[in-house]
């Protein structure tokens, strides 16, 4: 068994390295990317407010990591529903429609890319960000918690979703995209939801295998695709919030309970899409907290990851 895990670890390290590092042949960066525009696809983690609000504390600041990356390049980024190039939508899964916990009209990541490719053209200096997997994992976790499927089934389904996301990234590259950033789910086993539902192990395994299988499928695209490791960065933030100027990485700071399906983990749960500075814990400074609700981060968590993502992009291209 130890040899199997060792071989798997070596393989995945090689895959990740090819997507984290620039192509071989030069030890210096000859030019830096100055994108003409940023185009994003994904789920609630990247949603800039397709339906009017974001999955964080809605305080009117730069409170989503994709917007922060765009601004770092001197570019604006707005939802496609407002004529912009951010197609990411809350509850979006990679290729499957949401379960009955969400609006079945939600466009999948595949459908988001379909819409873009049908109406627009790939630009030579466009920066594409594809961020998905969280909604797929939530569906699996809810089923495991309810006893509707086993943890092994959840892992198998998550692995397929990871391969499906890689296929969507490949579509962009095949269409001519030269700069594609891919971000899978963070380790949902560390989320307040998984901890509270006693599914930490199942969600940690599902998150890891989603990203593992996605990386294996993308290994040959290392010259055009950059993997930004959300799992690594969020593991660090959860383990040591003071290192990121926060004090709490376990308590959701929002109090905005949604009587409906909310973020997909069940009715009557806190939904950060309904959260504002007036609906947080009493006497709390919300940016001292990592989590807005049981899944999605506060503006502080978003900004820390945005900084990390921009640094990775800038060091690569």
Automatic annotation (TrEMBL):
A Pfam family of this chain: Lipase_GDSL
Q: Which domain of life is it from?
A: Bacteria
Report keywords, A-Z: Hydrolase, Signal
From the UniProt annotation, give the residues forming the signal peptide. Answer: 1-22
Listed SUPFAM superfamilies: SGNH hydrolase
Write out the GO MF terms: hydrolase activity
Q: Which PANTHER family match?
A: GDSL LIPASE/ACYLHYDROLASE FAMILY PROTEIN (AFU_ORTHOLOGUE AFUA_4G14700) (PTHR45648), OS04G0577300 PROTEIN (PTHR45648:SF5)
Q: What is this protein called?
A: SGNH/GDSL hydrolase family protein
- To which species is this protein native? Caenimonas terrae
Q: What is the lineage of its organism?
A: Bacteria, Pseudomonadati, Pseudomonadota, Betaproteobacteria, Burkholderiales
């Amino acid at each position: 068994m130890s040899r199997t895990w060792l071989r798997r670890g070596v393989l995945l390290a090689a895959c990740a390295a090819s997507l984290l590092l620039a192509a071989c042949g030069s030890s210096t960066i000859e030019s830096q990317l100055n994108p003409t525009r940023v185009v994003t696809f994904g789920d609630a983690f990247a949603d800039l407010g397709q339906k009017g609000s974001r999955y964080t504390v809605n305080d009117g600041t730069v409170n989503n990591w994709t917007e922060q990356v765009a601004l770092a390049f001197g570019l604006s980024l707005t939802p496609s529903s407002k004529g912009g190039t951010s197609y990411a939508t809350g509850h979006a899964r990679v290729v499957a429609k949401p379960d009955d916990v969400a609006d079945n009209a939600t466009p999948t990541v595949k459908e988001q890319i379909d819409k873009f490719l049908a109406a627009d053209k790939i630009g030579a200096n466009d920066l594409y960000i594809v961020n998905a997997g969280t909604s797929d994992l939530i569906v699996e976790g809810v089923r495991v918690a309810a006893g509707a499927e086993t943890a092994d089934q959840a892992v198998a389904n998550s692995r397929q979703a990871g391969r499906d996301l890689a296929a969507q990234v490949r579509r962009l590259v095949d269409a001519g995209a030269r700069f594609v950033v891919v971000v899978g789910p963070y380790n949902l086993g560390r989320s307040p939801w998984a901890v509270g539902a006693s599914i930490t192990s199942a969600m940690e395994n599902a998150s890891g295998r989603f990203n593992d299988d996605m990386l294996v499928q993308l290994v040959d695209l290392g010259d055009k695709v950059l993997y930004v490791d959300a799992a690594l960065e969020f593991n660090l933030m959860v383990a040591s919030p003071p290192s990121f100027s926060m004090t709490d990485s376990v308590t959701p700071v929002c109090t905005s309970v949604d009587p409906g399906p909310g973020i997909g983990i069940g009715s009557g749960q806190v939904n950060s899409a309904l959260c504002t500075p007036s609906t947080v814990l009493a006497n709390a400074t919300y940016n001292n907290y990592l989590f807005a609700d049981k899944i999605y981060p506060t503006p502080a968590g978003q900004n820390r990851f945005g900084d990390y993502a921009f640094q990775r992009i800038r060091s690569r291209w």
